[in-house]
Design brief:
Radius of gyration: 19 Å
Number of helices: 13
Number of strands: 9
Bound molecules: ligand C2E, magnesium ion
Strand order of the largest sheet: 1-2-4-5-6-7-8-9
Protein name: EAL domain-containing protein
Shape: globular
Helix content: 40-55%
Distance between the termini: 40 Å
Length: 285
């Protein structure tokens, strides 16, 4: 909230801010132990081919079950982890866990298994000089190919600087695919899309919401334009946060081939996601 409110908000709400800082510090140190204590786990949200109804892939999403606080939302602890740098070990754990899970699905479900898994990566991870080697090591240790991995990065990561750009190019050279997450919300310029080796555009949920929020013309226009842009640039486009059949149909008409959202499936435990891999068509197409 401080970030959005800018300087004025910091001065005006200082007592509250201080409380926030204290909470964040405590949350940060608890997070530090969370990995060791196995309080973190992953859920997997299906991504569907919205034309055939088939399962296309999954996105790994981290969860934290705190012993006394209960469930802590990633929306709360990921920003804390990013500020403290804890996102680096946390992100390493997520990457390895997700790749191990995909390898298990491959051995359990063979051809029925999804080909690739999506993993969110924070800019702090991309700034680490060893990140490319780490990805290569995890892939080889889990027996996966680079094309089995899609790393989701934000538009601001892409604009971060030379080091991050070089890392992304190296990953792409290796064969790892890159997705631009929350696409349309950042300060991206379209020229970034040409300068940077992106494979997938993930249209942010806010534009999908615009489809049913009184048919908001501005957001509808962005949703439609992103589908076209992806087609022209020969990228794949995923619509995020689909919550209704009306949205699903509209996005399909706009040219989206892939979709993710509570209307089709919430983030699932590994065995639930695995169950979708042994049944052929999974949603109403
Ligand atoms: P994201 O990467 O954009 O992930 C999509 C978020 O939208 C997930 O929230 C998912 O549960 C939610 N979502 C999907 N479909 C719907 C829908 O139909 N309706 C609604 N209301 N929400 C939907 P989640 O799991 O709470 O994660 C929030 C954010 O936290 C993620 O946004 C991502 O930026 C971050 N995050 C989660 N896991 C990781 C991780 O392992 N590493 C990093 N760096 N960030 C992560
Ligand atoms: Mg994501
Ligand atoms: Mg997203
Ligand atoms: Mg999002």
């Amino acid at each position: 909230a401080a970030k959005e409110g800018g300087k004025a908000a910091w001065t005006r709400f200082e007592p509250r801010m201080r409380q926030d800082v204290v909470n964040h510090a405590r949350l940060g140190s608890e997070l530090h132990n969370a990995i060791i204590r196995r309080e973190l786990f992953l859920l997997y949200q299906p991504v569907f081919d919205i034309v055939t109804g088939r399962l296309h892939g999954v996105e790994a999403l981290v969860r934290w079950q705190h012993p006394t606080r209960g469930f802590v939302s990633p929306g709360d602890f990921i920003p804390v982890a990013e500020r403290s740098g804890l996102i680096v070990p946390l992100g390493s754990w997520v990457l390895r866990e997700a790749c191990e899970q995909l390898a298990r699905w491959h051995s359990d479900h063979g051809d029925g298994a999804i080909k690739a898994i999506n993993v969110n990566v924070a800019v702090r991870q991309l700034r680490e000089s060893g990140f490319v080697d780490e990805v290569a090591a995890v892939l080889s240790e889990t027996g996966l190919l680079p094309q089995n991995l899609v790393l989701e990065v934000t538009e601001s990561s892409v604009a971060d600087g030379r080091q991050v750009r070089e890392t992304l190019h190296a990953l792409h050279e290796m064969g790892v695919r890159l997705a631009l997450d929350d696409f349309g919300t950042g300060h991206s310029s379209l020229s970034l899309l040409r300068a940077f080796p992106v494979d997938v555009l993930k249209l942010d949920k806010s534009f999908v919401d615009g489809i049913t929020d009184g048919e908001d013309r501005g957001r509808l226009a962005v949703a439609a334009a992103v589908a076209q842009l992806a087609e022209y640039l020969q990228l794949s486009a995923v619509a995020e946060g689909i919550e209704s059949e009306a949205q699903l149909e509209r996005l399909r008409d706009m040219g989206y081939r892939l979709g993710q959202g509570f209307f089709m499936a919430k983030p699932l435990a590994a065995d639930e996601a695995g169950a979708l891999m042994s049944t052929p068509a999974s949603i109403v197409a």
